[in-house]
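re: ur question from earlier - yeah i can do the single chain one, its not a big deal. heres the input i used so u can compare w yours
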Amino acid sequence: MKKLQILLLGFIAIVFVSCKDTSGKYVTKQLTYTQMENAFNDCLELATEMAVESLCPEDELDYILGYGYYDYEDQAYRITLPTSARAIVDSLTAHGQGALIDTMVLHINRAAEASGSAIGSAYSSARSSLTYTDHQALVSTSNTHALTEYFKTQCSNQIHQSLMTPVRMKLTEKGVPDEWDNILSVYYTYNPQPVSIDLYSYIVDKMMDGIFTEMGYAEELIRTDPTLRVTESMELVFGN
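and the output i got, formated as tokens:
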């Protein structure tokens, strides 16, 4: 009898071990699409907020601490002139007018930093229209930036269009259009060949690149750090 009990216990242990879900797929299948979508939206919302806080600080002290497009560590997100403007930069620098470029670059970044509200609104609007096609893949993937990358792929064009007008307004407030016209005027005194650069679209693209990169880092933290899963939906889905 004792031997039979031991064999029976061993059989039960084998059954439990063999049925253990190591892939996460069983747990994922128990989640509804609504639960997963709520978690995705909560994650993207929090990631956007964290990205905006990093790149669009509202406190001057944050610049000293290394936040913002211009002052971020190692100039990781500093928006400079596009490579298509290299001839302009080189020409003005060679003629001792490089300070004009430096001043405009600073003002471009300050305009980007002042666009936090517009960025939040544009990303929120895009998020509300986002649809998901492979819920399980976005949960069980080993890519900790998968949700941000999906959002970027699906909604970049919409976000870009939403940001063009408000960002241009901020650039105007900082004097960037007048500075750009002056830079071109100086450049043409040295090189009369016309230059065609869509500067404002380029600036919006660079702003979005920075936000999406920071969102990816934030998503990784949300997936791996339980203290950042601050909603029931995120804990339910990413906690698994």
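The first helix runs from residue 2 to 18. not sure if urs matches, ping me
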